[in-house]
Amino acid sequence: MFFTLLILFSLSIHGRNFLCTNRLEDFLKDVSLLTLGSLGNTSLAQEVGQYVGSVAKQDGYSYYLIGPLDTLSVDDNDYFYRVNKSPFITADIYEKFATGLGNAGIIPVFDGRGKIDTNLVSSLVTRKLTYPVLVEDEGKANLLRALGYKAVFIVEENGEYKFLNSIPVSLYWKIPVQNPEELRKKVLLNSIIYLGPGEVQIRKSFVTSGVVVFSDEEFVISEAKKALEKRTAPGRVPW
């Protein structure tokens, strides 16, 4: 609520290139939305958001496209652009990620294009996480409004972004960009998933045995092998 009020009282016209659409992996190698959805310690999602926000702010952006209004399912084309099969967990990760972005002076935007999960939308509305949404057209905006999602809607036209019911705004504050390597290591280690006896599975989804990791770097593989021996790991299964 406090962050929402800050947005309302920080109105100012911004330039055309105000929305950063780079994937999370572009900021932190091997760290995707699915990685965040596998975290045992979900508070790390806020740290990730803060880092991403600081870089986006430094690059001149005011908004960041955080992720889709959809949950993970086996028929998805891109598992790594989903957080978790659970609408509740997805909303929780989004809330923490968005808080981090806000701390860095960046406004979160949800990706409402394509398939949406109405249960996730309801969970976001319940949490009052009605941030701006990028949609295909006014029809999708009306659908979300009908689901109780009252927010600012953005469409892309001729390579530029247009607000359907508002104007671009900018938050005035920013924070220094920190070295991300320690954070990246914490996230990759905390998202190691133990499923059962088997082998180390690198960036594989919907598997049922072994240990799943999101990077093939030695420090991750080493911890994965220990997890196989101990039969436990800090991450949670997102599917």
| Highest CATH level, the class of the largest domain | Alpha Beta
- Spell the H/E element sequence: HEHHEHEHEHEEHEEEH
Rg estimate, integer Å: 18 Å
SSE class = alpha/beta
Percent helix range: 25-40%
Tell me the distance between the termini: 31 Å
SSE layout and pairing:
Layout (H helix, E strand, L loop, with lengths): L1 H7 L10 E2 L12 H5 L6 H15 L4 E6 L18 H17 L3 E5 L6 H9 L6 E2 L3 H9 L6 E5 L2 E4 L17 H10 L2 E4 L3 E3 L7 E4 L4 H13 L9
Parallel strand pairs: 1-2, 2-3, 3-4, 4-5, 8-9
Antiparallel strand pairs: 5-6, 7-9
Overview of this structure, please?
- The chain has a 6-stranded mixed beta sheet with strand order 1-2-3-4-5-6. A 3-stranded mixed beta sheet has the order 7-9-8.
- By secondary structure, it is of the alpha/beta class.
- It has 2 domains: 2-163, Glycoside hydrolase, family 3, N-terminal domain (TIM Barrel); 181-230, no CATH class.
- Helix 3 (44-58) crosses helix 4, helix 3 runs antiparallel to helix 7 and helix 4 (87-103) packs across helix 5 (118-126).
- The protein contains 8 helices and 9 strands.
- The protein is globular, with a radius of gyration of 18 Å.
